[in-house]
């Protein structure tokens, strides 16, 4: 077994060194990367800077038209990476109404836990982007993802910028999405088009994320673009609200990243001015909600080693906060997740997770369903439940686990994946 394990590790190292992608997750959306709408005022480019590996697409640049409004949310980790801190500073500053913006992202190195040098690297990269694009440095936002605790070789990114600027094109979202991948097995994108007062407004987003996923802000790395005309306070409020039911409602392994960043750019190139509380605002919000939830669920579908996609629904809690505590306790439980991986309808592990959550619960009011099948009720296994029925349901790739606490009207839904041997393999070998 040890020899086999060493061989697997060598093979993984060779594949990564060669820039080869892992096998695509069995839960990946059918049809591959979607055709995203061309968002007016957005140009993108992707290229290879050799941040960690040679000949791998590992840096992307987005340049946004003058008048662009920026909003964002970032990780609440106490050990936030230097690019996150820089983004927070810049998002807090008022912007000139005619200012453009730019976003530069690298994979392979997180520039996290890198001391004062981390901030210097951010300044070097954002300053170089500003010099080459004419965008004010205060409006250049950067993100980094990859290994923590290693100095960012920012000179390699700076050296790649001339080629990136020369290659800026509209609608090359697939290339940009591939550039920000680390252990992801497929690039993630989602888009929508909505007609507001007779004019088409477009939304397109890309994301990366596979492990170290338990967001407490927005998510891993996500970039959403729209050509809508909307003011910054409204955009920020809408983004923060929808984050809680999308990116903050997913988990792969309960670990919140140091680098999680979600940036949203509105170029103001199409449609009417969206007034707060208007019908147009509600239509735009609905379209944005769909895009954000789609991206969030794609992250779960690409969970490291995942073979099952699990929706955890909690109802009947004392309040929504308690429902969320229960949903996350179930979704993050290694015992629940390994039972799902083994296709074992082990409802006892669900009972355990409810009990440890810290939420109000009463054993004799608790009910549990696997899909449409009631498993437990009134503090005991349901007389209608048959083990073979539960086992047959658990063989599906997409599962719903529902718990009703019988105490109140609180509800919450969380999405997660199973925990398999491959999760251990990927993370045990991550820095090798």
Q: Order of SSEs, N→C?
A: HEEEHEHEHHEEEHEHEHHHEEEHEEH
Taken from the alpha-carbon principal axes, the silhouette is globular
Separation, N- and C-terminal Cα atoms: 19 Å
User: Helicity range of the residues?
Assistant: 25-40%
* Low-confidence blocks of residues: 1-20, 213-219
Main sheet specs: 6 strands, mixed
**Mean of pLDDT:** 90
How much of the sequence lies in strands comes to: 15-25%
Radius of gyration: 22 Å
For the largest beta sheet, what order do the strands appear in spatially? Answer: 13-12-11-14-10-15
- H/I helix tally: 12
Tally of DSSP β-strands: 15
Structural class: alpha+beta
Can you describe this structure in just a few lines?
By secondary structure, the chain is of the alpha+beta class.
Defining traits:
12 helices; alpha+beta; single chain; 432 residues; globular
How would you explain this protein's 3D organization?
- β12 and β13 (380-381) form a beta hairpin.
- The protein is built from twelve helices and 15 strands.
- The chain has helices at 2-17, 82-91, 115-133, 154-166, 173-179, 232-244, 279-301, 320-332, 334-341, 347-356, 387-394, 421-428; strands at 42-47, 59-64, 69-74, 101-109, 140-147, 188-196, 199-208, 221-226, 261-266, 309-317, 367-370, 373-377, 380-381, 398-404, 410-417.
- Residues 1-20 and 213-219 have low confidence and may be disordered.
- With 432 residues, it is an alpha+beta fold.
- A six-stranded mixed β-sheet has the order 13-12-11-14-10-15.
- 50% of the residues are buried.
């Amino acid at each position: 077994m040890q020899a086999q394990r060493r061989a697997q590790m060598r093979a993984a190292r060779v594949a990564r060194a060669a820039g080869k992608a892992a096998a695509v997750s069995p839960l990946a959306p059918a049809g591959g990367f979607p055709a995203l709408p061309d968002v007016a005022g957005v140009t993108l480019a992707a290229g290879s800077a050799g941040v960690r590996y040679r000949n791998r697409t590992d840096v992307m640049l987005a340049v946004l038209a003058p008048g662009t409004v920026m909003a964002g949310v970032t990780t609440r980790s106490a050990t936030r990476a230097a690019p996150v801190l820089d983004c927070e500073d810049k998002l807090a500053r008022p912007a000139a109404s005619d200012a453009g913006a730019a976003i530069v992202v690298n994979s392979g190195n997180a520039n996290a836990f890198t001391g004062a040098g981390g901030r210097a690297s951010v300044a070097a990269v954002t300053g170089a982007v500003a010099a080459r694009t004419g965008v004010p440095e205060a409006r250049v936002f950067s993100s980094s993802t990859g290994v923590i605790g290693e100095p960012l070789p920012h000179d390699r990114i700076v050296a790649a910028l001339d080629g990136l600027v020369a290659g800026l094109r509209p609608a090359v979202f697939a290339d940009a999405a591939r550039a920000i991948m680390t252990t992801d097995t497929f690039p993630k994108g989602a888009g929508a088009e909505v007609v507001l007062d007779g004019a088409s407004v477009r939304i397109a987003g890309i994301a990366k994320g596979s492990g170290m996923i338990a967001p407490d802000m927005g998510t891993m790395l996500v970039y959403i673009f729209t050509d809508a005309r909307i003011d910054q306070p409204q955009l920020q409020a809408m983004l923060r609200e929808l984050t809680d039911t999308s990116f903050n409602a997913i988990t792969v392994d309960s670990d919140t990243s140091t680098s999680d960043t979600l940036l949203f750019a509105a170029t103001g190139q199409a449609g009417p001015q969206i007034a707060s509380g208007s019908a147009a605002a509600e239509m735009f919000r609905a379209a944005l909600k769909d895009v954000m939830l789609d991206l969030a669920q794609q992250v779960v579908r690409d969970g490291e080693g995942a073979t099952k996609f699990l929706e955890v629904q909690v109802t009947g809690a004392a309040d929504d906060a308690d429902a969320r505590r229960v949903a996350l306790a179930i979704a993050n439980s290694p015992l629940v997740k390994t039972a799902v991986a083994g296709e074992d309808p082990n409802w006892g592990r669900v009972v355990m997770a409810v009990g440890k959550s810290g939420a109000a619960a009463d054993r004799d009011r608790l009910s549990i369903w696997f899909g449409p099948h009631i498993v437990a009720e009134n503090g005991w296994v349901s007389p209608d439940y048959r083990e073979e029925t539960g086992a047959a349901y658990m063989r599906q790739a997409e599962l719903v686990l529902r718990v009703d606490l019988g105490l109140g009207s609180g509800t919450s839904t969380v999405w997660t994946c199973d925990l398999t041997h491959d999760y251990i393999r990927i993370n045990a070998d991550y820095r090798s």
